[in-house]
């Protein structure tokens, strides 16, 4: 039964003048109590302010008189009556019960037991809700006694009684079904749609709400508590962000939270084998790969994960999963992760905006030159840190073709300005599409940027040594950097390396002795070897072979 039909049925039940017993059954966690509470509260607010109402959970109750006392303590009497004393004074049954109560007390009965004998009279014509029937301890309260009490409330005290229980948990309880037929007048099976579950579980809207609904459908997840836990964690992440999350990032966040909540607290806990759960982050894409290769049928849990397109765990997933387990977030860790995610999200949004600007040019024949140029400039400003030299070349080319040379120059400045002068981007010798970059203004700007960035910094010497001993070639920028070092610094490099690494560094630098652009590198290593040779006969013998022309 949907939430709308459920609400209508309950309203009809409450509006009836007849004392009746209504059973509300459904799967665990689907929101039965939540939805009942919403209906009874709305009904009292809008339709019947005089409605008396009492609620008690049967979970943990040690005796029937304890249940009676709970109902008495939680009785919400008419909002217009004069309170208990007036009710007792005007109620013959209550007066008689008071006399009976005094008799019980004088005979040594405890006050609590005596009050429990008295309580049903104050519940006269009330609506009573007894929740968690399946969790009641039959050793403390038998089904017969409870259903007898319910029957008493209905027949003797003209009460409406609502009994809420998990249908799965009482399926095999024959005693309950035997007596239920005699006591229960109406029965509703509460089975909310996935849309209802998500709506009840959290405050989502629009496309993100649709994402959550689709996740619930794929996992066949109708447990409101499980979904609520997931959405609460997602909300905690969202609150710590310095700006609104982009759609793709929020989609990933909500999807991961729902999935891990299902694994930890929903059906996934029993469906997925323990050994798989313990290694879910390792080679996840291979969990069911063997089944496909061997044409084996997928297990139910595998089908769900496959529908969910869940093939790998990243750092965000690991953090979300940890938060689902504990219920709270490690602030330092989440702030670091969110910062990274926000940078990724900012990059995605910037690139998307830039691509959309090009769409105005390629996907239309409208006379929209002014709009195109405006959005291209704005888009490229945002996307420049993430774009390639070819992308810059395309922007410059189209602007110059439209006689917007000043804007082309400005965009070159934007591109160069958002990068460190030591960025390898400016070294087109390593760029696979360098033949596409022919604009002189771009080439000159890149060359100037490289030359302005050749000041050496701490750590550069070790970085360059690492490149040489790995056998990899030096980029133009690295060549310029290495050329700035002194003979003394090169001597230090040679003396702090040994064996094959030493040979690779010497040989790697000697290759540049006849290099057209960086012959100084070859001269540096030869001068360093001569300095070492001059230290004495021993060093002279060791460097002799390296110093041969």
TrEMBL record:
Instruction: Give the domain of life.
Output: Bacteria
Name the record gives this protein? KAP NTPase domain-containing protein
Q: State the organism of origin.
A: Hydrogenophaga aromaticivorans
